[in-house]
Amino acid sequence: MPVLFGIPLIGWIQMLLGSALVLFVLIKFLLRPKKKKTAGYLIRDVHVIIGDGSELFHQNVLIKDEVIQKISSEPVEDAAVTVIDGSGLTLMPGLIDAHVHIQGGFSCRSEEESDVFLQKKIPQIFREGVLPYGITTIKDLDAPKHFIYKLRRKLKSGEILGPELRIVGPNFTAPDGHPASTLGSNSPWARAEMAIEVSGPEQVSAGIRELKQAGVDFLKFTYQGGDYWYFDEKRIIRKIEKALMQQIIREGKENGLLATAHVFYYDDVKELLEAGIYGIEHGILDRDLEPDDPIIALWKQSGARFVPTVNAMTYEKDSARLVHSLHNLKVLYDAGIPIAMGTDNMLESMTGAIEHRELAYYVEAGLSPMQAIVLATKNSAEYLGVADRKGLVNEGMDADLILLEKDPGTDISNIQFIDKVFLKGRIVFSQKAISSYAIPDYAYPSEVSQLRYRRADGTETRCVDISGYAEQAEITQTLLKDDAPWSEEIFHVAGDLSCTDWHYSRPSDQTELLARKDGDYIKLSGTFKGKAQDKTFKIGDGLWYQMMEMAMPAFIASEEKQIVFYSIGTGNNRGAMGLGEFSAEKAGEETITVNGRSYDCVKIAVVLTAFSWAWTGFYWYDKKSGQLVQTGEKGKNADKNGYRLSEIL
Ligand SMILES: [Zn+2]
What's the DSSP call for residue 118? Predict the structure, then answer.
C-alpha cells in the first residue's frame, strides 16, 4: 500500500470521496427548490360569522401559513400580505358536508375506468362544482374503495386540489342489501368495491380488519330492508341481521372506528340507538315525531349524532318522506340532538348548489339561518372529528373560509353570493367580475310578425311572435307539443335584446313565474311545479338572455367573438330554478337549406359553462335578416332534438 505524507493511499481516496460527498450535499442544499410561501391575506373591516352561532363586526382577519393567525377589531398590520377590503362583506367558515357520494358507480364499471374518472373528471368536479360553492370538507360514503383510497392519497399529496376528505370505505350490508343491489347493480366491479355483504360474524370481523388496515375514518352500514326505489324501479333489499349490526358497532369501537348507519324507519333507529350507534344518517322518515316521543329521550341519552339529508328526500317516490324529514329535523333540533349537515350529493352529476339548497331546507324546517349555518360548520366538524382544525373562524384554525357579498346569517339564500373561497389559506375560487359587452341595439325586421320552428321529430312547434317588438319591445313564445299549447312566455327586452322581464306559464304542472331585472339582480317569484318560488340572482351588468335563441342576433351584429350570458332554468333537470351561466361563441359560417330555401348563416355554439363537456348547442342565423334558421346539438341526439324554421308569417 503506497503511503504519502504518512497517510496510506486508501486514506487519501476516502478523504477525497468524503469531501466530494459533503460538497455534493452542500450544493444540493443550496440549490434546493425554495418552497414557495403564500404570503397570506389580511381581510379588513369584515363581518365574521364564527360558526358557533355568534358573530363579530368590523374585524381584521389575518390569514397566513394555512391558518387564521389573528382576528381583531384593532388594526392589524403585515407588510407581506395582500390586503382585501372586507367592508360590507361577510366571512364564514367553509361548509362541511358529512354525507356525500363522490362516485356512485354510475360512471365507472372497472378500476381502469375509475382511474380515468379520477384523473380527468375529479379535478374538474372539485374546481367547478365543489370549491366555488364554499365546500371545503366532505365525508364520502361508499365510493368504490380503490378509487377513494387513491383519491385520498392524491388530495393529501396535493396532486389534486379539493376539499379535505373523510372516508368510510365500502358499506356493510346484508346480501342483496343497499348499496350492493342498488348502486352496485351497475357492475360486478362496483358491487364488490362499494359494499361488504355480510351474513355471518366472521365476515363482519374480516371487514372491520380490512377497513382498519385501509385507515378509513368511520364505518358505515345500511340498516334498512324492504322496498327500495332505485330510480323508477322498485327493488326489495335485505336488512343486515340485528346481531351483526350490534357487532359492527361494538367491534368498530374496539378498533377505534365509530359506526354510522343509513336508516329510514323509526323501529330501526330505535334498535341502532340501543346498540350505541355514533351517527344516524337520513333519519326517521316513516312518521312525524311528537316532542315527547320516548325515542327522543333514548336518543339524547345515547349521544348519537344525526345527519338529515333533507334535500335527498325530494327525489324519493313517497312525498311524505320529505314532510317527515323536515318535521323531525325541527323536533330533534329543539330536543338538543347534535345535528350535522349532510346532503347525499352525488358529485358525478350535481354541484354544491345542493348544499346551499340543504341549508335552505333547514330554514324551511324552522331553524334560523344562523342555526342552519352552525349545523354545516361547527357541528359537522365535530361529527367528522376535525373540530380542532375546522368549522369555526377562530385564531389557529385552518383558513377554510367563505367571503360573501351578502350576509347568509340574515337570509340563507345569500349563501349563493360567494365572492371568494379559501382552502387552507389559499384562494381556490374568486367570483369572476360579470363581464359587460359592447352589444349594439338590434331591431327585428318589421315585415315579419311570427316565426315558427318545428322540431325535427315533429313533436314540437315553437311560435315566436315579434309583432309587439317595435312598439313595446315585447316578444312572445308559445311552445306546442303535439300541436297543443304547452307553455307560453312573454319577454320584454332592452335594445341589446337582453331581458328586462319575463313571464312564463306552463299550466300542465302548475308553473307560473315572473322574473324582473331590478338593478344588479333578477327577482324571481311565482310557482314552479306547484312549489312557491322567491329567489334573487346576481346579474350586475351581465346579459340576461332568457330567450336565448332570439337574443343572439344582437351578439352576431357585435364585434365580440364570445360572450357569457345568463338564463334561468325551467326544465326537468337540476338547473331548474337556478341561474345558469352560458357561453356563446361565433363558430364560423355555413349555408343551411330549410324548406327548399338556402340561407347564408352564422353558426353559434353555446355551452353551459359548468358543464361544457356535457352539452353543446348549435344555432344558425341568417346573415341578412339575423333570424334564427335552425338549431341542433353535438352528439347522439343531434338530429332528433334540432328545430328548423318552418314558417314565416
Ligand atoms: Zn347516501
Answer: I
> Quick one: pLDDT band at residue 435, thresholds 50, 70, 90?
confident
Ligand 1 center from residue 101 Cα (angstroms): 6
Length of the chain: 649
Report the separation in Å between the CA atom of 141 and the middle of ligand 1, taken as the mean of its atom positions: 7
Residue 560 maps to a domain: yes
pLDDT one-digit tens code per residue, 173-195 = 999 999 999 999 989 999 999 99
Rounded Cα gap, residues 178 and 185, in angstroms: 10
Half-sphere exposure of residue 58, counting CA atoms within 13 Å on the CB side?
3
Q: Are residues 358 and 317 in the same domain?
A: yes
List alpha helices for 235-352, DSSP H.
242-254, 266-274, 294-302, 320-334
Q: Are residues 28 and 66 in the same domain?
A: no
Q: pTM of the prediction?
A: 0.77
Q: What is the maximal distance between C-alpha atoms in the chain?
A: 112
417 and 487 together in one domain: no
Are 523 and 641 found together in one domain?
Answer: yes
pLDDT in tens, 258-304: 999 999 999 999 999 999 999 999 999 999 999 999 999 999 999 99
Q: Are residues 471 and 336 in the same domain?
A: no
Nearby residues for ligand 1 (ion, Cβ within 5 Å)? 344
The pLDDT of residue 32 is: 58
> DSSP assignment of 523-550, as one string?
EEEEEETTEEEEEEEE-TT-EE-TTHHH
DSSP label of 570: -
Per DSSP bridges, beta strands 82-85 and 41-49 are parallel
When the pLDDT of each residue in the chain is averaged and rounded to a whole number, the result is: 92
Is 311 found in the same domain as 267? Answer: yes
Q: How many CA atoms lie within 13 A of 322 on its CB side?
A: 12
Residue 12: give the domain boundaries.
Answer: 1-32
* Spatial CB neighbours of 597, under 8 Å, sequence gap ≥ 6: none
Last-in-domain residue among 390, 409, 441: 390
Residue type, 353: A
CA of 396 to the centre of ligand 1 (A): 32
Three-class secondary structure assignment of 162-216: CCEEEECCCEEECCCCCCCCCHHHHCHHHHHHHEEECCCHHHHHHHHHHHHHHCC
Nearest Cα to Cα of residue 52 among 337, 407, 391? 391
Q: 104: CA distance to ligand 1 center in Å?
A: 9
Helix axes 353-365, 320-334, angle to 10 degrees: 70
Enter the C-alpha cell of residue 378.
361547527
Residue 437 counted as domain residue: no
Distance between Cα 214 and ligand 1 center (Å): 21
222 CA → ligand 1 middle, Å: 10
Query: Do residue 565 and residue 418 come from a single domain?
Result: no
Distance 144 CA to ligand 1 centre (A): 14
Percentages helix, strand, coil for the chain (3-state, rounded to 5) are 30, 35, 35
